[in-house]
Amino acid sequence: PFYTSQFAAAYESGMVRIWDTRRPSHAAFRVHAHNGLVMALDWHPSERGTLATGGRDRNINVWNLDGCLAPCSDDGAGRGPEAAGPHAPAPHVAAPCATTWSPCRATTSQ
């Protein structure tokens, strides 16, 4: 929501890639977010560079990508993501199919 030319895409492989429409030939940034299909992702509405992902591996990860996104070098290099780790201390009973932000924390629906 802070960089109008960038968007996040989730992949079956567990990868999340950040694409920049100004340089569509390669992803601006990528991270292996989950073991298997990424089923949900959502940018934080007020914290720049914060992305929540949910995967078939039953984990929810919150990523601090600030500094990885803009400014970024042409090859997509930059400071690596800081993972807050799985949001829950243990995997969920079922894979999260949606992620949304409350004012204080990431919440999911299963």
General description of the model:
- The protein is mainly β and 110 residues long.
- The chain has no helices and nine strands.
- The protein is 0% helix and 41% strand.
- The strands form three sheets. The chain has a four-stranded antiparallel β-sheet with strand order 4-5-6-7, with no helix packed on it.
- Strand 5 and strand 6 form a beta hairpin.
- It is globular, with a radius of gyration of 13 Å.
- 27% of the residues are buried.
- Mean pLDDT is 74; it is low at 70-80 and 82-90.
Q: What order do the helices and strands come in, and which of them pair?
A:
Blueprint: E1 6-10, E2 15-20, E3 29-32, E4 38-43, E5 50-55, E6 60-64, E7 82-86, E8 98-101, E9 106-109
Antiparallel strand pairs: 1-2, 2-3, 4-5, 5-6, 6-7, 8-9
Assembly state: single chain
In terms of structural class, how would the helical and strand content be classed?
mainly beta
Please outline the major beta sheet.
4 strands, antiparallel
Cα shape: globular
Proportion of residues in helical segments? under 10%
* Low-pLDDT segments, ≥5 res: 70-80, 82-90
Mean pLDDT, all residues: 74
Total count of strands: 9
Strand order of the largest sheet: 4-5-6-7
**Termini separation (Å)?**
25 Å
> How large is the radius of gyration?
13 Å
Provide the succession of SSEs. EEEEEEEEE
Strand content: 35-45%
Count of runs of 4 or more consecutive helical residues: 0
Entry keywords:
110 residues, mainly beta, four-stranded antiparallel β-sheet, three-stranded antiparallel β-sheet, 9 strands, 41% strand, globular
